[in-house]
């Protein structure tokens, strides 16, 4: 027997005992009148609290506990406990839902949920960017009314979602290449997942270009070598022609060796994730070495000048820095016509070490400058091969400078020459005290 029945029986027993006592002293009629009066009062009391309970159930207010005597106080208390427990469960579900939404928002992939009519129920920020949507404005809109890409419309309507769809030129403020895949779930609902593969496609394109360029760069000297070998084997040659052919073959073999050497240097730079050391370089020796190489390569065909702050140095890997700076100086000599001027400087600007190579060569068109550090990228392929370059020098420069947290700035004007500026960070710039004194 629960507490409600217990309290009801006790109340009736007390009322009966009270009526019996009144009947014994005042008579049966008085007892009956008292009993009727108490039942009427009890009826009004129950009706009042029933109406109160009805209003509370129609418009519940969490935290409000009506006070009442007797069994109604117990009912209100139990109802409050039930509402409190439900409220806690709802809060828990809401918190889980909020964490779930936060997790999807943090995902690098786009997520859009469609109902059974392909209308947008919800999408995260990434999906908004990929599809050019507005989650609030476009809620309950048919997705194909907003994403009008014909391939996407066909893909969504075909209901064959085993393969991904690649869409190019997506987005509004920035253009994306996006992979899209649909996953059906629930009652004819769909989950649309998108992934930004712009960088992946760019990398894959660079890889294909790189393989094609390597094949092309190695194919040319191999073809020349094969032709000369065939000529020397099948034709009688005098000593002069034989030596000339051997010299040409040696040049082509040397060119292939240079390409392979630079490829190995690039592979080592990309594969070594460790930062370069903090050992201070002997920049006086580096600058002398660069000057000797420039004069040797020029053979007096250019006016070359070097200006160096002997006290200024940087921390890093000497072989890497010498390779990067040497490539810039070598390129200036190779691409400057005879009689041109080349000026190289090593100086401190504010708190940074700056290496500058300025030439009076042909200059570089502005549209080519952003791509100069790509592997095998050439402004003029025929002229680049004539100078003996491998097309990898500036790619090596870029990776070396990245490892040393340095920056490369290129300024050029067609017909007036080019300036390559390397700025080392203040954290790697130092002054040798003994020299500075």
UniProtKB/TrEMBL annotation:
Its EC number is 2.7.13.3. Pfam families: HATPase_c (PF02518), HisKA (PF00512), PAS (PF00989), PhoR (PF11808). Residues 213-428 form the Histidine kinase domain. It catalyses: ATP + protein L-histidine = ADP + protein N-phospho-L-histidine. One of its GO terms (biological process) is phosphate ion transport. The keyword Transferase applies. Its main location: membrane. It is an enzyme of class 2 (transferase). The chain crosses the membrane at residues 31-48. One of its GO terms (molecular function) is ATP binding. The keyword DNA damage does not apply. Keywords: ATP-binding, Cell membrane, Kinase, Membrane, Nucleotide-binding, Phosphate transport, Phosphoprotein, Transferase, Transmembrane, Transmembrane helix, Transport, Two-component regulatory system. Member of the two-component regulatory system PhoR/PhoB involved in the phosphate regulon genes expression. PhoR may function as a membrane-associated protein kinase that phosphorylates PhoB in response to environmental signals. NCBIfam families: phoR_proteo. This is Phosphate regulon sensor protein PhoR.
């Amino acid at each position: 027997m629960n507490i409600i029945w217990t309290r009801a029986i006790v109340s009736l027993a007390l009322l009966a005992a009270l009526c019996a006592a009144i009947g014994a002293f005042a008579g049966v009629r008085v007892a009956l009148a008292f009993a009727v009066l108490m039942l009427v009062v009890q009826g009004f009391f129950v009706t009042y609290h029933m109406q109160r309970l009805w209003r509370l159930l129609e418009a519940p207010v969490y935290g409000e506990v009506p006070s009442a005597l007797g069994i109604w106080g117990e009912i209100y208390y139990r109802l409050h406990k039930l509402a409190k427990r439900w409220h806690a469960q709802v809060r828990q579900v809401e918190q889980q839902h909020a964490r779930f939404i936060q997790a999807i928002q943090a995902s690098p992939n786009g997520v859009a949920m469609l109902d059974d009519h392909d209308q947008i129920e919800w999408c995260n920020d990434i999906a908004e960017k990929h599809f050019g949507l507005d989650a609030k404005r476009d809620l309950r809109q048919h997705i194909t009314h907003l994403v009008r890409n014909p391939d996407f419309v066909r893909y969504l309507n075909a209901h064959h979602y085993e393969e991904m769809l690649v869409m190019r030129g997506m987005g509004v403020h920035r253009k994306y290449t996006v992979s899209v895949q649909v996953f059906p779930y629930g009652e004819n609902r769909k989950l649309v997942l998108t992934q930004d593969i712009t960088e992946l496609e760019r990398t894959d394109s660079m890889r294909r270009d790189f393989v094609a360029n390597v094949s092309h760069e190695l194919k040319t000297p191999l073809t020349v070598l094969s032709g000369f070998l065939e000529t020397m084997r099948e034709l009688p040659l005098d000593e002069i022609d034989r030596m000339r052919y051997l010299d040409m073959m040696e040049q082509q073999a040397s060119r292939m060796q240079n390409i392979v050497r630079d490829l190995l240097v690039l592979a080592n730079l990309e594969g070594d994730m460790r930062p370069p050391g903090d050992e201070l370089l002997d920049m006086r020796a580096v600058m002398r070495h660069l000057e000797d190489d420039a004069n040797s390569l020029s053979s007096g065909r250019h006016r070359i000048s070097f200006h160096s702050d002997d006290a200024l140095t940087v921390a890093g890997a000497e072989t890497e820095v010498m390779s990067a700076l040497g490539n810039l100086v070598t390129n200036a000599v190779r691409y400057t016509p005879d009689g041109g001027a080349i000026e190289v400087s090593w100086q401190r600007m504010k708190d940074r070490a700056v290496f500058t190579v300025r030439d009076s060569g042909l200059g570089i068109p502005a549209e080519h400058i952003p791509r100069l550090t790509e592997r095998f990228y050439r402004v003029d392929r025929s002229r680049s091969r004539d100078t003996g370059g491998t097309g990898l020098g500036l790619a090596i420069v870029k990776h070396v400078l990245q490892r040393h947290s340095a920056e490369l700035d290129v300024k050029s004007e067609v017909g007036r020459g080019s300036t390559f500026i390397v700025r080392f960070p203040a954290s790697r710039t130092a002054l040798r005290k003994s020299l500075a004194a």
